[in-house]
Write a structure and sequence with these properties.
150 residues; alpha+beta; 5-stranded mixed sheet; 5 helices; globular
Length: 150
């Protein structure tokens, strides 16, 4: 596996992953997927922040992504790196691809002088396994996310 920063040429694959994630998640499926908006967000994060990472297999095909960003915490003024999405194709989920993406994101966060990193899982896809994965990289469970459709 090889991790690199996403490039403009990766946007169609990132959009495809977004669509796949939406179909796989019962919660996301009911919310839909806005291809145009996803494309705009991916292009902005790639161009302005370099905060999207892709993992490639041995044939250099993209098999996973981690979408990140960085901002200032309103409460403390600290710089916080946020994970907005982690997706690996189902057939690569036990390959170490997700771990490689997390390591790249942590390194990127350190290089951008983040004070802390915030990650989570809201898809409903193997949430317990995702939490354990993040914990194996030194993250601590600090709370819960609750949603209500209106």
């Amino acid at each position: 596996m090889y991790v690199r920063a996403a490039e403009e040429r990766d946007v169609p694959v990132l959009v495809d992953f977004g669509e796949k994630l939406t179909q796989e998640s019962e919660r996301f499926k009911s919310q839909g997927f806005d291809t145009k908006r996803a494309t705009q967000v991916f292009e902005k994060l790639i161009d302005e922040y370099g905060s999207i990472f892709v993992v490639l297999d041995n044939e250099f095909e993209v098999v996973g992504t981690l979408i990140g960003a960085i901002d200032i915490d309103w409460r403390t003024g600290h710089k916080v790196a946020y994970e907005h999405g982690l997706y690996v194709l189902p057939e690569y989920r036990k390959s170490g691809a997700a771990s490689d993406l997390i390591k790249a994101f942590v390194l990127w966060s350190e290089m951008h002088s983040a004070d802390r990193i915030s990650v989570g899982t809201i898809t409903g896809i193997h949430a317990d396994k995702t939490v354990k994965l993040y914990e194996s990289h030194g993250f601590e469970l600090t709370g819960y996310v609750l949603e209500k459709d209106i």
